[in-house]
Amino acid sequence: MKIDRRTAIKTAAVGVGSLAITPEFLRAADGKKLFGEGFANLETLTTGEWWKRPGNNGKPAPRGRKGAPPSMNVPRDQVVAFAMYTHQGGVLKLSAQFFPLKPGEKREARLELMLPGQKKWSVAARTEVHYPGWDAHFRIEDWDNTNDVKYRVCHGEKAKFEGLIRRDPVDRDEIVVANLSCNSSRTTGPRDEIVRNLRRLNPDLLFFGGDQHYRHTEHTTGWIEFGLQYRDVIRDRPTVCIPDDHDVGHGNVWGESGKRSTIRGDADGGYRYPVKYVNQVQRQQTTSLPDPVDPEPVSRNIGVYFTRLNVGGVDFAILEDRKFKSGPAGKIPKMGPRPDHINDPKYDPNKIDLPGLQLLGPRQEKFLEDWGADWTGAEMKGVLSQTAFCGAVHMHGGRNSRLLADLDCNGWPQTPSRRALSLIRRAWAVHLCGDQHLAVVVKHGINEHGDGPYGFTGPALVNTIYGRWWHPL
């Protein structure tokens, strides 16, 4: 086991006290200045003099349509909120999320391990706590995945979060994956029943497929809220977490390779909020994943994270099915109340399957092709992404809101959707996703009904926002 060079450099910086927080640092780097002109509404509860803000100062925060968020002002021995990890190919990657720190406290996180045969904790690594975001990331190479190892993330002398790094279950005939998504912020508080049932099922892998929260402009607060709700099952098993539209502040997102969206509803493609905010969301949620297989950023230097993870001999491709997808506005005729909702009885599916439209994009299609042909250490394959490669929901939002096509799902654009399904079928893989709020098991069709792979769309963790119905004509 060794510490990589980046961690060593950060450790040296911490050692000379360069990461101590001062009032001047926080005042100079509050949310009004962090994200640029016009975005002073971002991260107000966790930047600048955050402890003086409603919700953190003993006075209730404005609720709006969502429930009140938890206070970010916690006892200082509780500032390590939660941690999650994966290990792959001899590399352990562990991310820790902190509550906001105060002046006089160091932006230093410490990872301690109790290795097999030991009775004392030993320091494995130290690293910087990022700002904004208050997240810290560790990378340990030469990781031995054949033993369970206790870990704890520490801040100072008293704040600790403990868990267990599980050995890889390669001797098991089957593994259990929990498929989870869409965790409504209108229903606040603990998720005790869900966590209790998850621990009873004892999954080998947790997959949170997006919409971990719906606090569009306060990702750090929403992310911490999510972590508090699920940390007692996250702490002791590998976890895959990938952001979806609400995590980056959208109702829907068509990333279109990183361009900026400029219309209400964002159906022109791209991202609404600044690159710095989008990259922060991705850093907080995905840095604990194995390294991306093709790390070149997309337009405007927005990062990517698509990768692969082997758990117990099951080789998972982890995709970004939003980032490269074309937006519909301005590319196809509007045939409903929104560019992405079609309810015109004269709708012809062939008229919206236009040349040049993208779904996964060439880079991820190339990855799927290579991954499907590589069975090193694998006995089975699976695909994890945000949403389904079909439109299996007939009504959205209300009983009279029938759609003939929903262009947010991965059934559109049809030609690249069929390419993706063909690549998944070639690997004999199953697809797990969320987003649709409606639990559906699908046997996909590519050239004819039923000739494609299976897809499992999980239900929403908490669906108090937007009803969906399976109600074929």
What does this structure look like?
The protein has 473 residues and is α/β, with parallel strands linked by helices. The chain folds into two domains: 2-165, Sandwich (Immunoglobulin-like), CATH 2.60.40.10; 242-469, Alkaline phosphatase D (PhoD) (Purple Acid Phosphatase, chain A, domain 2). The chain has helices at 5-15, 23-28, 31-34, 192-201, 219-234, 275-286, 361-373, 414-426; strands at residues 2-3, 80-88, 91-98, 108-114, 122-128, 135-141, 149-155, 159-165, 177-180, 205-208, 239-241, 307-311, 314-318, 341-342, 380-384, 395-396, 405-406, 430-433, 440-443, 454-457, 468-469. Strands 12-13-15-18-20-19 form a six-stranded mixed β-sheet, covered by helices on one side. A four-stranded antiparallel β-sheet has the order 1-6-3-2. A hairpin with a 7-residue loop joins strand 4 (108-114) and strand 5. Helix 4 (192-201) packs across helix 5 and helix 7 (361-373) runs parallel beside helix 8. Mean pLDDT is 94; it is low at 3-17.
Radius of gyration: 22 Å
Q: In what order do the strands lie side by side in the largest sheet?
A: 12-13-15-18-20-19
Mass-distribution shape: globular
What is the mean predicted local confidence, pLDDT?
94
Determine the CATH topology of the largest domain.
Answer: Purple Acid Phosphatase, chain A, domain 2
* N-to-C CA distance: 59 Å
- Write the CATH homologous superfamily of the largest domain: Alkaline phosphatase D (PhoD)
**Count of runs of 4 or more consecutive helical residues:** 8
Question: How many domain regions?
Answer: 2
Strand count, sense and barrel status of the largest sheet are: 6 strands, mixed
Given helix and strand content, the structural type is: alpha/beta
List segments where confidence is low: pLDDT < 50 over at least 5 consecutive residues. 3-17
Number of strands: 21
**CATH architecture level-2 label of the largest domain:** 4-Layer Sandwich
| CATH class descriptor of the largest domain | Alpha Beta
